[in-house]
Structures are given as structure tokens and as C-alpha cells.
Amino acid sequence: MFNLKNDLGQRSPILDSRWIDELHKPVFVGHSGTATTFGWFSGQTKSGTQVVFKSGGQPGVATMLYMIPSENLACLALTNRSNGGDLAFGVCDQIMATILPQWSQPSESAGPPPSPLSFASPFIGEWGGMLSNGGANMPVRLEVKSGDWATLALGHKPAEKLSDLRAEETAFTAKAVGVIQSPDAIRSEATTLSLKLMPQNGKLIGRILAKSKDGGTALPYVLTLIRLATRRSSSGF
Question: pTM for the full model?
């Protein structure tokens, strides 16, 4: 694999070594010690061995890939099941432990530690926008009343209260339950929603991640919200 800088013989490499190093260079290091890179995660086993890895999933598919550059070792598991994530992790874990006696899974958490949302947060207020990717085309309204009270309205459905409101450095995160009107979300019954938004030029930029009940499908929907005129919410909150 070119990510491990293997000799390809007479074939030309996809990328030369310096660009592979750029792909694996940490961009942000989380509190767990795991880092995000250009499309990958980079972490260490308990014994200190560097691991480049990535999990994935979409309707009908769940995957796991580990690469250890120092050992010229890669392990990939592909499943044709939305809820095959645990199986893919388990298969890779057993294979890696057989080859490397000191193997342990690196942490998958690369984000900053969450903290309570401040009442003076820039997210307080009413926001509106559209979900328009992944087959979705529906209005979204977010209202943040305080550090522990916010609602989300999808399409023309009534607003639902959000849970787990948190601040992650400059980002706002929360959880919700709802239906995104896109073919993949409906087919996968992806009704568990995770929001992550960041302020940028007076707007909130981020995504809603829709997950299926079994956790095997995760569908990202890009979201941009603008601040609405201050008024009393029709929901009465």
C-alpha cells in the first residue's frame, strides 16, 4: 500500500514519500493523545507503537483499517452490514494481537474535552438554514435559549428539545432524535442525530450526523445557519 511507502516495483507511486508524510502529519491532537491528520487518525498503542487508522460506514457497509508504518503492517476488515462495525473492529483486533503481542487499540477520540455551554455563548439565539446535501432539501431551525435548553425543528415538524448540550472549544454540540428527509436516512432509519456547529462570519457552520439505531450507519449532512430576527418563539419555550 502506498500509505506504507511500499516498493511498487516498476509501477509509479501514487504519491511520493514527502506527501505521504503530510497525509499522516497531526493537524489536531485531542486530549486522549489521538490526532486527526489529512483524512486519517493517528494514535498509539499502550506500548507506544504509532498506528494510522480509520473506521467507516454507510448504508449496508461497515469497515475498519489499521496501518502500522514501523512494522509495514496493515489490517483491513470490510463487512456488508450496516451494523458490522463491532465485527470489523473485533476481526482486526484479533488479527493484530496475533501478529503483535503488545497490540492494543488506540483511542478513537480526537476531540477536545467537552464543557458546559455558557449562557453568554455566541450560540444563544434563533438560527435558520437548509439541509441540502445527500438528497435532503429541508429547512432547519435551531433555537438556543440557555446553556441547558435548546430546540431543533426539521422541515415542518414541531421543534424538539436537544440533549447533551456541550461546548468543545469553539464548537457547539448536541444530540437529537428526528427524521431527515433523504433516501439514505429514511432507508437506514437513521434517526439519532448529532449536531456540531462552529461560529464563522456571523453564521453557524457545521453538520448534522444521522446514525441508525444499531450504530452501523452514519450519514453527514452539511448545515449553514444564519441568525434570525429576535422574536418570541412560537413554541412557547
Answer: 0.63
